Amino acid sequence: MRDTAFISALALLMVIFCCGYAAGAERNLLQSYLTTFPPYGCNRDAQQSRFRLSSIYTVMGNRVCMTAQVVDCGKPGSACCARNIDMYKIELDVNKRCKGAVSGVTVNGLPALAPTFDPYGTNESKAVYKLTVSEWLTE
């Protein structure tokens, strides 16, 4: 049951890249900061990303296995499309009640390292499940 709750809470998958951004550049209002995933400034345009998580994943007990891949960038020339940009972290927007529902994650067969679960939002009603990728995905 806990796996089902976690899986249904994966409403949005987002890969965060080591793309530089000015601190607070996209924080227009405190309210949007508290309700928008992820809860800090970043480039949210999927067309400016070289990486994708497959929508197909497997669950074995409390372990989730995902696949990430390098794809053609939809907006060549943008900063996040540069070949020197690596994928080093995956962040999932989850329901705060799902804390502890997942005991491990693998990406491309390798374990994700040091997962964290950080509540955010008004009354900390949401959470970001952050996974450091054990081996950077590059082209």
UniProtKB/TrEMBL annotation:
Tagged with keyword Ligase: no
InterPro entries hit by this protein: Pherophorin
Annotated ranges, domain Pherophorin: 37-132
Matches recorded under Pfam families: DUF3707
Signal sequence range: 1-24
Keyword list, A-Z: Signal
Protein name: Pherophorin domain-containing protein
Organism classification: Eukaryota, Viridiplantae, Chlorophyta, core chlorophytes, Chlorophyceae
